[in-house]
Amino acid sequence: MSNEEALIAWFRASTSYINAHRGKTFVIHLGGDALAHHNLSGIIHDLTLLHSLGVKLVLVHGARPQISAALAEAGQISVYENALRITEAEHMEIIKSTVGKLSIDLQASFSMGLSNSPMYGANISVCHGNYITAKPYGVVNGIDFHLTGKVRKIQTDNIEHQLNGGQIVLLSNLGHSLTGEVFNLSAEEIAAEVAVALDADKLIMFTPGRGVLDEKQQLIPTLGAEEAERFIREHSDGDRQKDSLVLGLSAALRAYRQGVPRSHLISYEEDGALLVELFTKEGRGTLLSNEKLEELRTAGIHDVGGILNLIRPLEEAGVLVERSRDLLETEISNFMVVELEGTVIGCAALYPVCEESGEIACIAIHPDYQRAKLGERLLSELERKAEQQNLTYVYALTTVASHFFLEKGFVEIGVEELPDSRKSLYNYQRNSKILKKPLKG
């Protein structure tokens, strides 16, 4: 496939995502490390694209490394406790100056519009106001955090007014108290609290690395609350990159617990990671979600096209017996499917063989989801379905997947052990292995 054909295919495939995201509210967190990375311009271009597609954006930026550098240059000692900077009164002028410069530079980034740049014609307006009311973090375990603060209130009406007017709302890690003081807050906390207050559709945390990785350093594409909690407990070890990831995941978990449906952890180092995560099925980060991502259900006539797309490559390779659309339509009630965001990514069927047995057939999983154990889920569901039909045994015939069935409690048998109704249909030319499993019932 040529580059042009690949672009056309991707653009067409992204249409459903474009429609799904239009009019939605996304809260984006960019920490100080992300602002200092050379890929920041790429992220700005991608955020501009989202805005152009009708997504309402609230951008929360941090300044942790920049503040540390500015304080060190001024000979000021910066102390952390519980991952929070203790903000002395004499630090505030330096902090305000540092954060103010970053905010101004970010606003300027969205104002670029040269004819040879992705920003051309965007005409984006960015507003920056005192939308975060703060209060002192206080004295914790005898430690006075001075002008370190935490969120007291979000001016949601004002933010929503700006978003509905087509503005990008820019927030920093500074908040203002009712007495007129300025407090230094955690940008991660602000991002989570703003997402909750706005009832945002997504919280997106830009983090170092690819996202949350397993023990083998493989990306974990989706994460549950318990897994997130365990990762946070096990990886708060003082490693700067890991700590940044832990802070991002902690903010995502905080939003998750308060009703934000989806939080994404995406690398700020990889160009285009945001677009791949939002506009493709495979994604490019870690998603924490309170939604059921994959639906396992009985197939309907509207699933025929999706099933055909799954099984055609396997039929062409000789792995599965060929089925016409007409035949599949008549047999559709035998099928179970796994659906992800409107697309069939797995299927399998249970065919009646005789009064006491059935055949499990046509297990097919989309190549991008082979590691998600969807085949095991489908097999388990079909076995449960067979038990409900008071079947005693299930059979499977396969040319390439005998080990899969053997690992799931099947045993290999000969053709002569098949029921007569199935034995007469056995294709000796295919020479499929025959496997049998007794059911619990």
Description:
Helix 5 crosses helix 6 (92-109) and helix 9 packs antiparallel against helix 10 (240-257). 37% of the residues lie in helices and 25% in strands. Strand 11 and strand 12 (182-184) form a beta hairpin. It has 441 residues and is an alpha/beta fold. It is built from 16 helices and 23 strands. It has helices at 3-13, 15-21, 32-36, 40-52, 64-73, 92-109, 156-164, 187-197, 225-234, 240-257, 273-279, 304-316, 325-331, 374-388, 402-407, 420-423, and strands at residues 25-30, 56-61, 79-81, 84-86, 126-127, 132-136, 139-140, 143-144, 149-154, 168-171, 174-176, 182-184, 202-207, 222-223, 262-267, 285-289, 294-298, 335-340, 343-354, 357-365, 393-398, 411-413, 433-438. The strands form 6 sheets. An 8-stranded mixed β-sheet has the order 5-10-2-1-13-15-16-14, sandwiched between helices. The protein has 2 domains: 3-289, 3-Layer(aba) Sandwich (Carbamate kinase); 294-438, Gcn5-related N-acetyltransferase (GNAT) (Aminopeptidase, 3-Layer(aba) Sandwich). The model has no long low-confidence stretch (mean pLDDT 89).
